[in-house]
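Can't attach files on this board, so I'm pasting raw text. These are the components:
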Amino acid sequence: MLAKRIIPCLDVRNGEVVKGVQFRNHEVIGAIEPLAEQYAQAGADELVFYDITASADARVVDKSWVERIARVIDIPFTVAGGISSITQAQEILAMGADKISINSPALRNPELINTLVEEFGQQCIVIGIDSFYNSETNTYDVYQFTGDESRTQKTTWQTRDWLREVVARGAGEIVLNCMNQDGVRKGYDIEQLCALRNDCPVPLIASGGAGSIEHFHDVFTLAKVDGALAASVFHKGIIAIPTLKQSLIDAGIAVRPA
Amino acid sequence: MTVNSNLVIVDTACANLSSVRFAFERLGVMPEVTANAERIRSADKVILPGVGTAQAAMRNLQQLELVEVLKQLEQPVLGICLGMQLLTNWSAEGNVDCLGVIPARTLRMQAQELPLPHMGWNTVEARDSNPLLANISPQQAWFYFVHSYAVAPDNATIATCDYGQTFAAMIRHNNFFGAQFHPERSGAAGAQLLKNFLELTDVNTRA
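---
Top answer:
Structure tokens for the assembled complex are below.
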């Protein structure tokens, strides 16, 4: 049976792993390779590396670390950050990344999704969506350039429409970052994830809000996502992956044993 | 470690070669990545990796003039993911004739209401004697899959997996082996499988 995936996310800036609260005030967590290796050994199913400054700086992710990670870990990993051409995607995949995740460049040029899917296959093209719930208008709005607070801006897209658009263009997986929850550890945005699950025929990964083991139970059983991404609970040692996985297994959720 | 180091990874250009190479390097083997026909023919063992579409990959092999070379190999060959599908007769992905060294066909997955691609870790069940799954218990046999096309189970199937349907997780005909999943990205179980491949002898590969 296909396992639900536990996915530590490592935000990378200047070659170091950092984490902010609600996409702000980034603090340094540590060097990339030892953390990557540590998570792989602890039983993480997959890792995501976001170069959070990349899109905002209009440069491609610094790539040397991609190959260093590929050498040391034996689980899949995704690289995100300013990838906006076939050449850049090719380079990162050739260095050993399993998937590439596109966010702001896809908003700027949606046709990029089709181009990448055609060239590399649907299975390695992930679309990251930063979604913010606006309580005044009662809408979920898509944001871009979230790696840099001074440049973060609301787009004209509502989340459901953008999700349908990227799926129609061939996206192989969706990571939905629920910005209101990010880094505050109050639980995943179950309501939003449930509302969007039926619009997502490809794997859906929840992101933003994990604070306790209970939150993982909820997101898998209630929102029926394929994977749950989290950062601070893992980086700060609040949740140990083997403990988390055992708890999910005990609850009857399909998980690969750590 | 007594493993054979005359290992060649076919440089299919469209493939994710590095992660396969690194996985063998972690086992202490330095494979050669090449599209040179002579080097491929003289290797003790050959890996055919693959990422992308069957149509693009076959076009690539034709341009590299490797189609006949690969078909005639007599040493153990392991096709990974798309590389496994290329070993079959035909793929529905682009309606393309493949290498045809394993009598099987690659079809679009019918996963009922489940998301596609089939992406993530799934369990694999060995059929008959499968030398590549030696020393991997059924409880340990979790492997990482990423695909939307799959080979239908038939006589060439040596392991199965379930995702909305039962499909061939591994296939084999004589010296040609295929794994739909990515052993290079499947933790300790994947590493053991690659080690098993390196340790295959003639006894394992004769018809």
